[in-house]
From TrEMBL:
It comes from Prauserella halophila. It holds the Pfam family STAS. This is STAS domain-containing protein. Residues 29-127 form the STAS domain. InterPro entries: STAS_dom, STAS_dom_sf.
């Protein structure tokens, strides 16, 4: 696993075979994690500690899976666990996802349990919505 400082201040990139994660800090303690590639069992083993680390250090989290080309059952389990961890810490979170990720979520009926959006901006708006008491 390699960690590289990204082009934006505070951004970072972690990559492994088939998966790349770019962490983008934003305002009000929000972090957007851009996940690219295929999320299979190997990808989950990379992502789980990344997501857990972020949930210990953020006030809100958006997972950007819009450039993710495959989501396995292990990936679905990871999303459910991330949601449970976020709720237990009272951290608002959302998932932005394109068709390759939305399809397994819809087929399993998990869209009722996961805060899913088709694009990053509405996901960001949802976690920073008024009433969330998140100040810049």
């Amino acid at each position: 696993m390699e960690t590289v400082v990204g082009a934006r201040s505070g951004a970072g990139t972690i990559s492994a075979t088939g998966v790349e994660v770019v962490t983008e800090p934003r305002r009000a303690g929000l972090v957007v994690m851009h996940v690219l590639g295929e999320i299979d069992l190997l990808g989950v083993s990379l992502l789980r500690p990344c997501f857990e680390h972020q949930l210990q250090n953020v006030r809100a989290l958006v997972l950007d899976f819009t450039e993710t080309s495959y989501l396995s059952a292990a990936g679905l389990s990871l999303l459910l666990q991330t949601g449970a961890d976020a709720r237990s810490r009272n951290i608002p979170w959302a998932l932005a996802a394109a068709r390759p990720v939305l399809r397994p979520i819809e087929v399993t009926g998990l869209e009722r349990r996961l805060p899913v959006y088709r694009e990053v901006p509405p996901a960001v708006d949802a976690v920073l919505a008024p009433g969330r008491s998140m100040s810049a």
